[in-house]
Amino acid sequence: MASQSLSFIDALCGTDGPARDRADKMLLYGQFVGAWDGTLTRHGANGDRFDSSAEVHFGWALEGRAIQDVWIVPSRVDRPPGEADRMYGTTLRVYDPRHDNWEITFIDPVRQKRDRMTGRQVGPDIIQEYRSATGTICQWCFFEIEANSFHWVSRESADECKTWRLTAEFYLKRRTRP
Prior knowledge:
Layout: H1 8-13, H2 23-30, E1 34-43, E2 49-61, E3 66-73, E4 87-96, E5 101-108, E6 113-122, E7 125-131, E8 137-146, E9 149-157, E10 165-174
């Protein structure tokens, strides 16, 4: 044990792949492990639009039993001097073999936002869903998933999924620069 690191980072991220007992299921989100750069567009209810640079980092966590990520807006790489964080949050995604779905928690201390949801694969897409305190159905969706890019969408429905309002979308590409 003396030769192994006992640091927090090693305990959280000390693996480079999925746990063997659930490896096939872990690849749903494991395919995103790495660094991503792109843009965020927020869509206001009144039609206003806000655009910014973004970066996202996915990694294996908890001995390969979870995927954890960090979403940062604006990107630290492209951020103008003096510009403050608009988002700096983390998601913990844990596969639940008993229910064959994902339990997901997102926390962003910059915006004081916390969301708990379930996730699953739907065709080629990944849909994460929860109900807000007001009863609105909220979905976070991974669409157009390719090896080096994906489109992430946040949308909500106040009429039980009959219609959707787009609230935010990220267009991300796998980082190629060091």
